[in-house]
Amino acid sequence: MFAPDLAGSEYDELELTSEKRSIKNxxxxxxxxxxxxxxxxxxxxxxxxxxxxxxxxxKMGPTLARMAKRxxxxxxxxxxxxxxxxxxxSSDAEKELNGxxxxxxxxxxxxxxxxxxxxxxxxxxYMAGMKxxxxxxxxxxxxxxxxxxxLVSERYHDSRIALFSTGNVYxxxxxxxxxxxxxxxxxxxxxxxxxxxxxxxxxxxxxxKNKTKMSILRLNYATELRYGVLLDVAQKVFSGQAVPLSMGxxxxxxxxxxxxxxxxxxxxxxxPPFVLNIAxxxxxxxxxxxxxxxxxxxxxxxxxxxxxxxxxxxxxEKSFRLFGYPKVSLGQMLPWIADWVAxxxxxxxxPTHFENRAGKF
Length: 361
Known about the structure:
By secondary structure, the protein is an alpha/beta fold. Helix content is 38%, strand content 14%. The strands form 5 sheets. Strands 3-2-1-4-5-7-12 form a 7-stranded parallel beta sheet, with helices on both faces. A two-stranded antiparallel sheet has the order 6-15. A two-stranded parallel ribbon has the order 8-11.
């Protein structure tokens, strides 16, 4: 069952696991994030042919692709896993991926002429998109989030596609409702969320037109030690900054579990697309999480603003029926993140701006 709000005594009784209180470095973290479950190994064993990950260089792409490769190897399947990106920052990302056995292909997905050179594959994970910096670059945001999906759909019309979307397409949901469900009508707030609904609609159009099997993944929100909503709260508490309460509730799911569910969704790809919320099982109180981090850090906590009666929330009960509950609990994530922050370990330095209620990123 979903917890409507981790507040009061219910949250105070949250059991923090003592099984493993620390992840020592990035190498160990990336190994944990890419470890496949038995169900993921079965999925990758049943799929036929290679896998292309479009937009692999983002926050979640490298470890998801590595999980797919590890699961394929463990299933005894010879499969090329190919990551596509501009790789505009440096060659380090490519070298790391290549070291994990993942091939790389440089491509600007806005370049229509580049699609002819993209590698063929019967399985595709689509992770490309634009969020941060979208305010002031609305036309580019729409091009990335709604134009590129049409190009991808035509290029891979014979493939099976799992495509990432966001729970932002639902808009704000009453906290006591325990999150939006897949059957709820979209009500996106702001151009970013609107463009993400546009992405879904374009993919849906080509799924129906070309009979392409797809799964649409509405994610709220994947988190790990270098990035995510829980990290944002922990960093503010540790540094003595006020924690904003304007978006007073949220979802969070450990990235390993989110990646596993995403890959397993390829088993359920259909036309029209199969829609799936991916999120943690709790409706998290930002105030209570901050207080728990305060206890872990032994620091006082300051707040600004007041909680609203609604928030961007997903109900992921459908995913739990299909794939089971996340393997990593909130009680494990909090001490891991607190320890990482206290040791000043590396982060991606990309705040989620979870407190934004106007949909401007």
